[in-house]
Amino acid sequence: MITLTKNAAERIAGQVTKNNAMALRFAAKESGCSGYSYVLDFANEKESDDEVFEQFGVKIFVDTKSLKVLTGTQIDYVSEGLNQTFKFSNPKATDECGCGESFAIQG
Fold it and tell me: pTM for this structure?
């Protein structure tokens, strides 16, 4: 399962509407200094291997391969001074790189 905070859902809903998309696509790809990176994109259609999660009226599509790495992740949207960014709380992540752009999982 993937969950959203209310702040994240509001931000995503606005961006999905602005981009005339159907949903947010959330994925993990192998890269970065720790092993995986989070990928956020817009989806205009559901792929055959997508799982669909919906919260606060926002749909999130996650492919089954990424879901193995992302299950349990909560997406938040936070303001830190002048910066605004998405934050990911992934219970499977065992380590993050210093720049916060990638993460590792055990096994």
Answer: 0.88
